[in-house]
Amino acid sequence: MPFSNGLYYYTVHACDDIDTLFLMTTFNLNNGVVIPALAIGTWQSPPGTVANIVEYALVNAGYRHTDDAFAYGNEAEVGQGIAAVIASGAVTRAEIFVTTKVWCRYHSRVSESLALSLELLGLDYIDLLLIHWPVSLNPNGNHRTTPTLPSGARDIDPSGSLIKTWKQFEHIYKTTRKVRAVGVCNCSTS
Fold first, then answer.
1. 3-state class of 93 per DSSP?
2. What CA–CA distance (Å, rounded) separates 146 from 153?
3. What is the pLDDT of residues 103-143, one digit of tens each?
4. Non-local CB neighbours of 129 within 8 Å, separated by 6+ positions
5. Could you report the per-residue pLDDT of 79-99, keeping only the tens digit for each?
6. CA separation for the pair 25, 16 (Å, rounded)
7. How does residue 178 score in pLDDT terms, banded at 50, 70 and 90?
8. Which residues pair with 66 in a beta bridge?
9. Which of 44, 47, 25 is nearest to 36 (CA)?
10. What are φ and ψ of residue 175, in 5° steps?
């Protein structure tokens, strides 16, 4: 039965098992794309375990949504898990909702970030592409994810603009078939 909280429409399916109920709950994004409410998160997953975790979650635990990010450093393993599931025939790509995020060093290079994530994940498209954090970091900084200044402070890109980043997201969404939906995370409403 569908419900709305004013921002999202979501559907709760009737079932006897509360765990299954949560896995079956979905939301309709504003463009009509349906997103499973729960995702298997991969942040801080130990290297060498992620593919098996993703495979288990999709095949045995009933998850249909993976929450990934370039900054987590494990998109290749996530992709291996997804590929194994699809190859086994247990779940199709269309049944798996993949969310990934553009990291702060790529705010001025969203297409490059998306291409890198697609390559690492071994996918043709992402279901939901998010701006990971609203602060731009130096794209040429001294670290792959968290560049710092000699003082140890974060190397923030003062020319970074969330609006310019968002316009790149909109362009990709409107002109390619590489993403089904775009959005932001870790942003406040103020």
1. helix
2. 10
3. 999 999 999 999 999 999 999 999 999 999 999 999 999 99
4. 99, 100, 101, 102, 114, 169, 172, 173, 179, 181, 182, 183
5. 999 999 999 999 999 999 999
6. 14
7. very high
8. 40, 98
9. 25
10. -115, -5
Of 97, 20, 90, 101, nearest to 55 by C-alpha is 90
Tokens 């559907």 belong to: 11
Residue type, 171: H
Q: Residues with catalytic annotation?
A: 72
Could you report the per-residue pLDDT of 44-74, keeping only the tens digit for each? Answer: 888 899 999 999 999 988 899 999 999 999 9
- For the chain, list the domains and their CATH numbers: 1-38 (no CATH), 45-184 (3.20.20.100)
Strand-strand pairing, 97-102 and 26-28 = unpaired
Q: Residue 61, Cβ neighbours under 10 Å: how many?
A: 12
48: Cβ contacts below 8 Å, ≥ 6 apart: 77
pLDDT for 13 beyond 70:
no
Three-point CA angle 49, 98, 132, nearest 5°: 90
